[in-house]
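Memo to structure team: turn this sequence into structure tokens by end of day. - J.P.
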Amino acid sequence: MRYRKLWYIILLAARILAAVSPAYIHPDEYFQGPEIAAGDIFQIDALRTWEFTPTSPVRSIVPIYLFTGTPLVVLKLLTALCAQLGWSIPVTGKQMFYANRLFMVLATLLIDICVVRAISRLYPKAQLQATRLLLASSSCLIVFHTHTFANSFASITLAICFDLLSAIEAKTQTAACKLACVSWWLGVALALGTFTHVSFPMFALPVGLIALLVLARAKSYKGAVCLAAGGLLAAIAIVIADSVYFQTAKFVNGKVSGTLTLTVLNNVLYNSDRGNLATHGIHPWYNHLVVSTPVLFGPLAVLAIARLWSFIKTLRSQTDVKCTLIAAGLSAGSGLVLLSMVPHQEPRFLVPMMAPLVICTWRFHRVVPAYFWKLWVLFNAAIFVGYGVLHQAGVTPAVDFVSQTSVLPRITCHFGTGNDHIECMAANGNYTEHRLQVTSKVFAFAAFMAPRHLLAQPTHSEWQAQAEIHDLISVEDSSVQEKLSQSVHVSCKQAQTAASGSILAKQTTSGHFERTLLVVPSSLDIRRVVPADSNYSVVELYSYAPHVNFDHIGEILLHPIQRTKLRVLVICDPSR
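Reply from structure team:
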């Protein structure tokens, strides 16, 4: 028992390590949550993607504020408190990054708690040590759930739903008021999950239906009404909040004007159009079964399939069948089947399967052969290293480098050779009477989209040094060359001798200076974007390792040391 507790603490430490690691799984983990919340809360530059178009948004703001806004509000309050105490601590991109990721660690503990409590509530004598360790050691929980995906939020909400369902099943013989209260909160959780991600109902439908069945069998019609009322009122509250946020409706003196924003409906309509999905990628119907499920769950998925018939026989042989267990099996199955009917499929869509898969297989965790645990350790270690440490890990550090060196309220500068170049550093004290404006244009190529909010650059500010990020996604090499050729080129000689962390910029207009940066992985042959016969060259300012782009895995395997970096280069004129 003592060693199992020690292992759980070690695995919890691994979860924290994965959370604070800059590994980057998919742009949605930033642009469907933290980017929006940070922009609103701190009034900083943020990229609002098409999903938040005010006329037809497909993402509700409520779960975004709940899961990613909460830690940022706490961060804002802490910095305000420090300011009151005389400590001036500006909010940085790093602080926002860590606040969101560490909050996700705390949120994922709800999955541990809810899964174990749901099982032990129905099976008081159950030995769940193996289940606890299996859940805590899952790379799906350690890596994917600690990233701010809407799917992770949906998974946490689904785990809460199973906990509440088991409470309803266990409380059917208790006071009606307690049963009604639990049913109410289950309705609220189901509504919240539905607005969190459009795929949530595919996993949660069995939970809601079986909850109603349990309440009907117990003749708790009050509980059924409370479940429906809780869900309906929560949904209405979310629709009103979205309508106010996206400014499609106004509520004045109890009167409503405008139209209500139904983000779930907009999302369903968007995803019903195959042409829309084609822009994100079309996959075969079996992709989730043969790719997504093994990537997320590995041996656990094999165990679930291998023990499927045993699970069915167990349910049939018992006179006292636990409805929560049935709901878990149906939830995992319905989510997989229904999502397989959608042409666009990515592994993270199946993240909510984590809780139901563990619940419906819990009986087999203590009796699996030793080789299962060996395969389980190897599989999760590989996913942890690949997606939790290496994958696109240089993007956020590169943004942080740009933020620290190129986003500054005040700068002190001196002119370089030729009087058309200046070299600037951060300055203390008041602005000078004659302000200089320095802009760093950043082009990111062959790397994931850079989260703008991590620059911590105030919106419409008068800061002397600012940065602009341009993502060159799916852009041809020739187009990248053209952009770089037409950009501002500083002197290569001065760039090579400039002080570390300084801004070397070239004058473009009176009082305004500019430089061009290129963010590119070392796994890319630099000659693709910087040909030998071009009118520009590059000087490296910063690099971060390890950074692995799986699209270039062949080149990385041939040169694992040289090709696992993300580089920040300044574009310069080789003739100067």
